[in-house]
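Quick check before the chapter quiz. The format below is the same one you will see on the exam, so make sure you can read both the input and the output lines.
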Amino acid sequence: MTDELTAQLHVAMPFTAVLGASALKVAPDEVVLRLDWDATRCTTGGLLHGGALMALADAAGGWCAFLNLPEGATGTATVTSATNFLRPVTSGHVEATARPLSVGRTVVVADTELRDAEGRLAARVTQTQAVLRG
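Here is the expected output.
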């Protein structure tokens, strides 16, 4: 099932294939994506790059918003994204778990937690997704 979800992720958001993200769970109430630590995704000192973490969170939040679109909507686009980095990811993987905070006619707000392989909170992202029509 994970391979099928990951294939769907890469078709819907081709950048996630370049990033190396995989999908673990996809449902309107929760989307979980994973990114393995790799030296090519790091900044100095072996820290997983903040941009990689933000991209993973944006993909998870975007998919979550898409799954919660109101009737008649055709897609979403990120309007704002606020990231709080809480600890570095230096090995293993990071999982992004996105959940809807508010679902409206014009915007969907998603909250995404990024946790390292030990389950420690590495970052938290709140993003607003515009609801697209037509």
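If your answer matched, good. Residues 26 and 32 are 6 Å apart (CA to CA).
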